[in-house]
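go over my protein:
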Amino acid sequence: MLDKLREIIQAVEAIDDNKQAINHLVSATKQVMACQCSSLYLLTQKNTLELAASDGLAKNAIGKAELAIGEGIVGTSALKQELVNISDVRLSPDFKHLPQVEEDKLLSLLATPIFHRRKLLGVLVVQDDKVRVFNSDEQSFLITLAAQLAWVLNQLDVYHLQHSFNNNHFTGLGVSPGIAIAKASLFDGTNDFSIELKKGASIEVETSTLQQALAECRKLFGQWRDEFKSQHNDSGAQIFDSYLSLLEPYSLPAEFEVQLQQGWNASTAVVNAINQVSQQFNEMDDAYLKQRSLDILDIGKRILQHIYKDKRRINSKEPIILVASQASASMLAELLELPIAGILIQEAGIHSHLAILARSMAIPMIMDIGNGLQHIHEGDQLIIDGEKGELYIDPVPLVFKAYQSQIASLKAENQKHIDSLDYPPVQLDGQQIGLMLNAGLNAVNPLIKKKSVKGVGLYRSEIPFMLADHYLSEDQQYQYYKKVIRSAVGKSVCIRTLDAGGDKPLKYFPMKEDNPYLGWRGIRISLDHPELFLMQLRAILRASVYANSVQIMLPMVCSVSEIRRAKEYLLQAKQELITEQNLDFSHIQFGIMLEVPSLLWQLNEVLELVDFISVGSNDLSQYLLAVDRTNAAVSNLYQSYHPGVLKALAHIATELQSRPDKHLSICGELAGEPSGALLLLAMGYRNLSMNPNSIAKINYLLRKIDVKQWQQLLPRVLACSDAEQVQKLIEQQLQQSGMTNLMTS
């Protein structure tokens, strides 16, 4: 039966129409099982099991007949989460007669629930008109089919598509908050790199072609940067500054040159190099860095357009909602003169530059609405809710009016968040809350200039290394760090030393490992190559003269001996530069990123060697839970609010409270989530570093809370047995304190 199983799954996956796919499923299952009926029940939003497809039951019952969980034999299978094998349903106390399905002649029944990552999707059922017990081979086949089918059904999202389309309502992921009501304008924003790879006529000719295209791209990006600056949109200007930096000779053009020297023509050189560099970013674990692959692709697309003299335009005087399968920041900049009310993209990301730009321009944006994109036509009236991720196509008048009334109040509320950054830092219990920015490809976000922002809590120094085809020299690194430090306008900057390996390989270092996350990465690489480590330390120290406070942070430390060795190298670098240039390093602090669980029980020893600790909650959670959050099969087990993770974070804060001379911060994603920030403050954390898109909302939220309420809640949170209980307690606290609106506004 294994071949039959494979045939069914492959056939279902190959059918584009979802209803046809599940209809084929039940028919093929009926044929293989040699029975009279096969049916698929799917879980609805009402938490009932609805008959979605059947070969053997009444056709007019499909989409109408339903059972509650625990009701009937099918509902019992779902409730007990197990296979049910009934030889004669008439004798079963669980049998529920549904006249509309017309199953009176069907006697025996075999049912198995369908689960995807512990979530019930539905129940697969076969029935026969004979009194019989389905044998072990038949049971095994149905169970295996259900397990395989779970992955397919999760992709098809059949029930959601069936019922959402009936009222033209779809749910995706909200990326940029706000509500937009406008007509749909379809745009092809895909990064199409499907060109024929060709060798060049000569290196000179192809170099000339490429240089001209690069010059035109630099001019275009410069124009867009200046346009955003003229509109006082610092985020937009900064994005295209970063694009321009990627077109510096030592960055992407150096990669193109390598390809040209291999004999490829200009367009092929661009495609080969862009694909290589973008793939490096795409394979990273960090969500923010992963999204930078889209920037690389975006730049490559623009260069190709200039090589081919290809330009696409949309013309509209009325407000539009831009609809595309893929898009980019440069696409939005290209369309600046258009009245864009909202953006609907199938493939993007909350950390993509398109999303950052949309947020900076206060343009609502949603993504990932399954097959909903197929149902949108040019000129359709759309409503998108960028907070909830909801889409309405040609909405009914009642829905239309309800959303119209929300738009004005939302605009005022969002502006409050931004304005709150102009106030002095928040004070809690007499302590100043340090809100800091994580930085990477863009150097430092313009929000650094706001009064409430303390500085840069994490600068990812590995990014320039990943864009190069060789290890950066001391002077090259110095230029990068100087730019970051100077753009921080005198505020503190924490520079993480090279955190390569794992999801961030360097193509010029051999790093092929069976388990890279537990392999040669972070400080291990630096200590194995002291000549390179000293080069980086010297570059940071030289650049530090442009700041009042610079922190040097070690990644992936797992032992006290590593800290000692790294500290010795730092001392050596300092002494060399003091001798050579008579520099003052009294403003330099030395610390680690705490992300390996082994150090949780050596904090006293660690604190004797460092000035500060910054908790990397992402990796710490991943290692505590033994879950690779990039692995789709187990990513649902990665839970930031797992009691074990929260207890570890609370333990760190408690230990640091007895050492007021040591600085404690946290720079993982948890710090940028409203619920996470509140729990961290209750634990005692007073320095939170986060991505730029989170800081305004967190700052506004902190000005409204009573931290004592959350401190009183914390023991109950830490006593929970699972993440679900934690979330319920948080929700209850928010409701009791009247803060629910603040969390969602």
The longest helix spans residues 203-230. The chain has a mean pLDDT of 83. The CA atoms of residues 526 and 557 lie 11 Å apart. The chain has four domains: 2-166, 169-188+315-418, 203-308, 422-620+663-702.
